[in-house]
Amino acid sequence: MVDILHRIGITSSPEDVYAALTTVEGLAGWWTEDTEGDASPGGIVRFRFLPGGFDMKVLETEPSERVLWEVVEGPEEWIGTQVAFELKQEDDYTIVLFRHEGWREPVEFMHHCSTKWAIYLMSLKKLVETGRGEPSPHDVQISNWH
To answer: CB of 119 within 8 A of CB of 139?
Structure first.
């Protein structure tokens, strides 16, 4: 198994970052505008993009500390993988340790997804720090996979 890992610092409180990860409005503000569902534990959140989408089951939420999802619908490579956001305060920053874990092998699509996760994490940073992110369809396009 292989994982996508990223670390980003956001000049905001863990509570504000957590809200952007655990509300449909927050998620639509940085990942994709076409977001709907139930972002509470046990709920399913549906994220849609130009080429398709993903359904995430919310496995865990620990206020201001952790969010964990499992991919239950989407591309074959994503099914059964987990997406985790660990939050911790360091000085003026909330550090987000991001993991998209459980990929069976490092296929080319994983390389693409790693770059896109970095783009979306920068959108999360921008949303929390300025009030306006760059969710899909306003994100940086890097290939025909979007």
So the answer is: yes
Q: What is the DSSP letter of 77?
A: T
Please give the model's pTM, rounded to 2 decimal places: 0.96
Amino acid letter for position 121: L
* Residue 78: domain span: 2-130
pLDDT tens-digit readout, 14-67:
999 999 999 999 999 999 999 999 999 999 999 999 878 999 999 999 999 999
Q: How many distinct structural domains can be found in the chain?
A: 1
The Cα-based distances of 132 to 58, 64, 126, 145 in angstroms read 24, 20, 6, 24
Helical H segments across the chain, by residue range: 14-22, 24-30, 108-130
Residue 35 lies in a domain: yes
The reply to whether 145 falls in a domain is no
